[in-house]
Design brief:
The complex is a heterotrimer. Chain A is built from 15 helices and 21 strands. By secondary structure, chain A is an alpha/beta fold. In chain A, the strands form seven sheets. Chain A has an eight-stranded parallel beta sheet with strand order 9-19-18-16-15-12-11-10. Classes of the chains: A alpha/beta, B alpha+beta, C alpha+beta.
């Protein structure tokens, strides 16, 4: 090992020795083996080289004796060569490999949600108090006819294409069993059922225990086709074809063989210990007309009873792509922005490929309206929807519903340490190690997810009421309810909103 | 009657319950003062072996053999809870011998102690339950 | 300051309407007088009326009422119209000079029939063709604005208090079987005549009191189908929604009401008939973007009838009364009693409950 390989630890474990009672909870709870007990000194020691700052020890320390701080050991300051960049070079010079990261892009690129403000009623029109008046957040996702027909008896033909019926415009987005644990899936499934929304299997198949949550499940078909069979397709409320993911557009997936154990292997329908490799493209979809064939194959396989979602990453010409998808038989288009999360992605891709969901959403919604087909498909967006305010802004920009994953993981305990790829998740989420998986009790997990979404729903209703809107559909695409702050003309133009003060 | 139950499936073997128990019964204002640098004598303890762990404390049996066997009359059943009178205990360890769960143990002074559901301290409800990070220990009617 | 259409201007209002079920004619004086007791509901920045059955001699022709900024605008527009229509009659709309109404544009009306040859070449039915022409003039023609385009009906509007507008247009000289009237209370406006109510398209007209919170959701949806909301007013978008639902989608008035003032999901779930539940679920799902929220009371006029509708929370006042063959609708009871002192019971319809009144079948209009 070369001396250059040594990279000073990013964090310091600060232990208040007046408080530490050497109960060793930190030691038992750290899967990275940062903490140890020294018998001779009767004291706890720490090896901060292993610390990922997941905060598990901090959260469980009964005397609040621990904190994790950013190390102040610095390279010589350089605005161009930031520490992360320098370290990446050292790591690559050492390993010769592609660097991997997990969760969403942490770089300080613009977050347009934070530059958009929401309107409220004053004087000319009353705001509505959601605690006193009805306030509706129910959403139907699916294809809508462009013309209503009347039968010979004069009655309207009220047959609709299959729809997803959601109590609020939020769904848990795709996270596969394998990338996250059984208990994480159990928590999501149970919460989705209790909330009247949907969660998404991701591309890891559907564990046999979770078929009972079918009407709250979206089953995904991705390029690896893992876990796809007839019963699986028929189990869910909808089928999602995953063409791409915001965190890694143009890249496939790779779940290492070490995670393909037991139930994961059975659910994915691949041998234990074999790597689960999802190819970058679907090898039966090299063009838009191929996509149409897969959409209709899946519809045929399920007797046209399930809406089909096509999920794509937000890339440069997303508006044209979405328009193509809308004309390919898809009932719902899901778009994932470049800040979306992942269990593992090449760092370089995550930080440099794709576009922000806010701009993608606005561009797609406008384009579909220009073409007169926005009413025929539903639009779901994800890729860092962090709060009820983000949801409201997304709906007002034109989305029918939002996909939420990172916020859901946070509710389950995730502290965004961004090391999902190691499989040592101390919170029992992104791991298959049984002793870690059991740390996530789905009774608690589902309860916390329900709480989070209930809180968001209340906040959505408050914001709607403030605008004098009492049904979520009257917010959809209602861009006049939004104003930009600190955005340039071009950005405002793409977002289709005015600047604050206008 | 509400009792403390342990769900082995969710026990992480973190031992927090032991420390919370020892602190709850210490009468001290903070945990560091109560437990720092001292051996602890919790009334709940973790049984573990490899990947299995679970906490054990008094089951508050309906027909408690410990009460029957106590030669000093220090153990008694009160509204279903098995209570101990430290003043009466002579430290004969008969209760330790008869308890099938190993739920009784002496404190540092050789006087027997056992879980009394935190009814005798300021917690109000069992400290092991409130402090369990994974809801593996619950206090409920079954 | 930006003109109306370049900026959205919220406004409050007064509305009144009357219809004879027997198709008996009433002069426009009746509705003009009805606006007087509601004077304080307007602020002098807009008033207007629509009368139905007022042009019996031209009832097979579309009556285009147009504001022109100047003579050039009129000549350009006439040249455009000639390419598309046979102009049977063109004239200045008679007005009376009164101090309360100033800065009037050039106001003309044209009784026209679409040229058959043009219709055939554009493959549109007659109504769609006229609607498209109106959109085209209003969004593209400089200094020309069509404010009425139906058959045997007409809108009359101006900047001013409604009672003065009625006098200005000499409404006492017109006879109609139904009338609607409107006084406007915009929060700020440079005062443009086109922005006054009623807003019309073909024979549909809307007078509206309220400020809808769903405006941009509705606008962006309806604009997919060729409508252009040049005024950014609620009334304009409401008119287009009604036109789209009734004319393009073929819904009934009741069905259209169930779209724009849709019953709450809980109300739908409690409907005893399965068919009702299915129908309402269908309408809410398919036309979700045409749900109108926020306060409104509207009177929708069409050939042979009127429909009054409140938003589903009934956030704006609107009452209905009847006497013999006539039905009266207004923001305030006082307006109704001005039209008919002996009116019977005055009723406040529920939010979202359409009140539809039609002239009896068989009556020649």
């Amino acid at each position: 090992m070369s001396a250059v390989d040594f990279i000073f630890p990013e964090f310091e474990v600060v232990r208040n020795s007046d408080r530490c009672i050497a109960c060793r909870v930190c030691e038992r709870q750290c899967s990275n083996k940062v903490h140890s007990y020294n018998e001779e000194r009767g004291a706890m020691l720490s090896d901060e080289t292993k610390c990922v700052n997941c905060q598990r020890c901090v959260s469980l320390c009964p005397t609040r004796a621990l904190k994790i701080v950013k190390s102040d050991c610095t390279f010589r300051e350089n605005a161009n060569w930031q520490p992360d960049t320098i370290k990446q070079v050292y790591r690559q010079a050492s390993s010769g490999g592609v660097l991997l990261s997990a969760m969403g892009n942490p770089k300080p690129q613009p977050v347009y949600w934070d530059r958009i403000l929401i309107n409220a009623s004053q004087v000319t029109n009353p705001s509505i108090d959601p605690l006193r008046e009805p306030m509706e957040t129910r959403v139907f996702l699916g294809k809508k006819p462009s013309r209503t027909e009347r039968g010979a008896d004069g009655r309207l033909k009220t047959e609709l294409s299959p729809q997803i019926d959601l109590s609020m415009p939020v769904m848990f987005s795709a996270m596969s069993y394998g990338s996250i644990s059984y208990n994480a899936h159990a928590s999501l499934a149970r919460a989705a059922e209790a909330l009247g929304i949907c969660y998404n299997t991701g591309e890891g198949g559907l564990h046999e225990d979770f078929y009972r949550y079918g009407k709250n499940t979206i089953v995904q078909v991705a390029s690896g086709r893992f876990g796809v069979h007839k019963d699986y397709l028929e189990a869910g409320a909808a089928i999602e074809i995953k063409m791409g993911q915001g965190a890694k557009p143009g890249i496939g997936g790779h779940l290492p063989g070490t995670k393909i154990v037991g139930d994961v292997s059975r659910t994915r329908m691949i041998p234990e210990g074999s790597d689960a490799i999802s190819p970058a493209p679907h090898h039966d979809i090299y063009s838009i007309e191929d996509l149409r064939q897969l959409v209709y194959s899946l519809k045929e396989a399920t007797a046209y009873k399930k809406p089909v979602i096509v999920k794509v990453a937000a890339v440069h010409n997303i508006a044209a792509i979405a328009s193509g998808i809308a004309r390919s038989g898809a009932d719902i288009i899901a778009i994932d922005g470049y800040r979306g999360g992942t269990g593992a992605a090449p760092t370089l891709i995550r930080e440099n490929v794709g576009i922000p969901i806010e701009l993608a959403l606005a561009a797609v919604d406008s384009r579909l309206r220009d073409e007169g087909i926005r009413g025929n498909v539903s639009l779901v967006v994800g890729g860092s929807i962090r709060s009820a305010a983000d949801v409201v802004k997304a709906i007002a920009l034109g989305a029918d519903a939002c996909y939420v994953a990172t916020a859901a993981l946070l509710a389950l305990g995730c502290h965004l340490c961004r090391t999902c790829n190691t499989g040592n998740c101390n919170w029992g989420i992104a791991t298959q190690r049984p002793e870690l998986v059991k740390r996530l009790n789905p009774d608690i997990g589902s309860e916390r997810l329900i709480n989070l979404m209930t809180a968001w729903r209340h906040e959505i209703m408050e914001l709607m009421g403030g605008m004098g809107i009492n049904s979520i559909e009257a917010l959809k695409g209602n861009r006049m309810m939004l104003r930009g702050v600190g955005l340039n003309e071009k950005e405002l133009g793409i977002l289709g909103i005015s600047h604050a003060g206008e | 009657m509400k009792r403390v139950y342990v769900n082995e499936e969710w026990c992480l073997g973190c031992h927090l319950c032991e420390y919370n128990c020892a602190f709850a019964n210490s009468g001290k204002p903070d945990m560091a003062t109560a437990l720092k640098g001292k051996p602890i004598y919790p009334r709940i303890h973790i049984e573990e072996n490899d990947k299995i762990s679970y906490a054990v404390s008094c089951r508050h049996c309906t027909d408690p053999i410990c009460v029957k066997s106590c030669i000093a009359g220090a153990l008694r059943q009160e509204d279903g809870v098995i209570r101990i009178d430290r003043e009466k205990c002579v430290g004969c360890l008969t209760c330790v011998l008869v308890c099938p769960y190993g739920a009784l143990a002496p404190d540092g002074d050789g006087v027997m102690q056992k879980c009394e559901l935190c009814l005798q301290n300021s917690c109000g409800e069992p400290a092991c339950v409130t402090g369990c990070p994974n809801r593996a220990i619950v206090y409920e009617e079954r | 300051m930006k003109l109306e259409g370049e900026v959205r201007i919220p406004s409050g209002c007064a509305i009144a309407a009357v219809i004879s079920r027997e198709g008996k004619k009433m002069t426009g004086e009746l509705i003009t007088n009805a606006m007087k007791p509601m004077h304080d509901r307007s602020n002098g920045l807009g008033g207007g009326f629509a009368g139905y059955g007022i042009y019996p001699e031209y009832k097979e022709l579309y009556a285009l009422h147009i504001f022109f900024d100047d003579r050039t605008a009129r000549e350009n527009c006439e040249r455009f119209l000639e390419k598309r229509f046979e102009i049977v009659q063109s004239e200045i709309i008679p007005t009376r000079k009164i101090p309360a109404i100033t800065d009037e544009p050039i106001i003309w009306r044209y009784f026209v029939a679409p040229l058959k040859s043009v219709l055939a070449s554009v493959q549109l039915d007659e109504k769609a063709f006229v609607a498209e022409t109106v959109m085209k003039i209003n969004s593209e023609a400089e200094g020309a604005y069509v404010f009425s385009s139906g058959k045997n009906m007409g809108a009359f509007k101006a900047v001013g208090f409604p009672e003065d507008v009625g006098e200005f247009y000499k409404l006492e000289e017109y006879d109609g079987y139904s009338w609607t009237g409107h006084g406007r209370y915009p929060t700020n406006t440079p005062g443009w005549w086109g922005g006054a109510h009623p807003f019309t398209l073909l024979d549909y007209s809307i007078i509206h009191n309220g400020e809808i919170s769903s405006y941009d959701a509705n606008r962006r949806y309806i604009e997919m189908f060729g409508y252009k909301c040049t005024l950014q007013t609620d009334t304009e978008v409401m008119t287009y929604i009604m036109d789209y639902l009734l004319r393009v989608q073929g819904l009934t008035l009741e069905e259209a009401s169930a779209v724009i003032a849709a019953p709450f999901w809980s109300t739908i779930a409690n409907k005893p008939s399965e068919e009702d539940r299915r129908l309402n679920t269908y309408l809410r799902t398919v036309y979700s973007s045409l749900l109108v929220t926020g306060p409104f009371s509207i009177v929708f006029g069409f050939t042979g009838g009127l429909m009054a509708l409140n938003d589903r929370l009934k956030l704006r006042s609107m009452v209905v009364g009847e006497k013999d063959d006539r039905v009266f609708i207004a923001s305030e009871e006082a307006a109704i009693r001005t039209m008919e002192p002996d009116v019977g019971e005055i009723r406040a319809p529920f939010g979202g409950e359409p009140v539809i009144v039609r002239v009896k079948e068989g009556v020649e209009l």
